[in-house]
Automatic annotation (TrEMBL):
It comes from Flavobacterium urumqiense. This is Uncharacterized protein. Keywords: Signal. PROSITE patterns: PROKAR_LIPOPROTEIN. It comes from the Bacteria. Residues 1-23 form the signal peptide.
Amino acid sequence: MKKIITLLAIAGLLTLQSCTTSGSFENDLIPVAKSEVFEVTTSFNYTNNYSRLITLNPPIYSSDIVLVYRLTGITPQGSDIWKLLPETHYFADGTLDFGYDYDYSSTDVSVFMVGNNLQTVSTNYRLNQVLRIVITPASFSKAIDKNNINAVMSALNVDKNQIQKIDL
């Protein structure tokens, strides 16, 4: 019995030792998702139905998660203030005034406004809106505080010069 176990152990070691990879095994078989950040400035109005379709290249994999942030202001120290979508704004009585939301497919992200009377929303909220789109593998994003864009960028090891600007 000991000889059989020893023989199987040696055969197993030889089999495993003969397996080698070129170092790109993962790249050859499966697309390796990497995090990317895009920035776009857009306006929402009646001519575009208060929505914007943003085409992305490379494709978004089904295992990716997409986060969209809107620049909402600047701190007194000059730092950007970003808010994760969906974002809602309410009237004083608690009813919905307007908001922003998004959805995505494998090739694009659609960002749109929601509300009952969007043409009455202040131009401060409709025109020249700066959006950041973050694409990251879903498994990686579980450990990130998604509400804090600085934490997301830091965890993904992406700095400002790596943000890809999209012109619409």
